[in-house]
Amino acid sequence: MNQALSELLQQLRAATRVQEVFGAAHLTSAQALKRRYRALAGQAHPDHHPNDAAAANEAFKRLQDWYEVAQRYAAAADPAAPLIAATSRLHHYRGDQPPLSGDLCDLYPALADGAPVLLKVARQPANHDLLRVEAATLARLARELDGQPVAAHFPTLIEHFLLRADDGALRHVNVLRQEVGYVTLAAVQGAFPGGLSLADAAWMFNRILAALGVIHGLGLVHGALTPAHVLVRPADHNGLLLDWCYCVPMGQPIKAISPAYAADYAPEVAARQPATPATDLFMAARCLLHLLGGQNNPDDLPIGVPPAIRALLRACLIPSPQRRVSAAWELFDDFQDILQQTYGARTFRPFHMPSA
Q1: How much of the chain exceeds pLDDT 90, in percent?
Q2: Which CA distances in Å does 265 have to 147, 188, 209, 246, 282?
Q3: Per-domain residue ranges of the chain
Q4: Cα dihedral across residues 231, 233, 234, 238: positive or negative
Q5: Quick check: 174 and 131 in contact, CB under 8 A?
Q6: Alpha-helical regions (H) of 192-264
């Protein structure tokens, strides 16, 4: 690989702040930033690296993602009032973009000293307990998984605090690192309404199962594994589970359901019965079902889906949690066996979202 491309790709993979990509001197104005971006884009553009197309595509995509963040950083010098501003004991946060609306919270893209973050703000004080659950869970995962590669499958909690809102009420805020280059499974489904090939959906399901295997080993149930709560990064095939507000210890009922995905929850959730690993695996199977082009059950999957996958999904979607598949790592191994029999030795298969 060309040395300049190799060094740029390593820099982009390691970056956590815009300064590490573009340099502080180039963030003082939009024009200075644009000049630096064009110079780096020239180094990374795939047309200049026909023999290193995969590396160049990854570098160019990562650079584009960071350029979007850097443009917000440069715009933050604008004296216009931000949509959200907050100061904690650790950072000053400023957000100039409209929030993303979740079921119970608003998520404001913001910057903290050049690092992209999300301010997850409770819409009502009654939901503070759910955000506290998320903060405590993510803090525990960070401790338990420190230094382990599997930690990449979980959000990074920077801090949490109370914010005085414009109406005078206190709102709980969880500050999360904003993950660059990811899309939700819901976005993937929307981009491929006819369903993905199993070869493309496989790595996404693998990441979900690996993350579930870890948390189930810690005695936790995620409780809200919907397509909107799973992020995947096409560049390197990482996957990340979002929204830990509904997480409970095994044996406790899930406290709430996302209305938009009510049909994807295991029956025991609506019945307020104890949640188990089988609860998460039911929802994980629903994610794979939708990714492959199915709607309600394995029988309506496209004809090209292997029978072994249909059988695996049926085992995960049994209504009774006592009869349903309940071991994430065993399911992971079974899934690998099916992939091996279907495709042979594992290889990296590039995945690209369609251009908007």
Answers
A1: 56
A2: 33, 20, 17, 12, 7
A3: 3-75, 84-177, 183-343
A4: negative
A5: yes
A6: 198-217
- Residues 269-279 have a mean pLDDT of 97
User: For the structural domain made of 3-75, what CATH number should be given?
Assistant: 1.10.287.110
Look up residue 196 and give its two tokens: 């993905």
More confident of the two residues 109 and 164: 109
- 219: alpha, beta or left, given left = phi > 0 and alpha = psi -120 to 50? left
Report pLDDT for 18: 81
Q: Which fold, 183-343?
A: Transferase(Phosphotransferase); domain 1 (1.10.510)
The mean of the pLDDT values for the chain is 90
Domain over 84-177 is classified CATH 3.30.470.20: no
21 near 70, Cβ under 8 Å?
A: yes
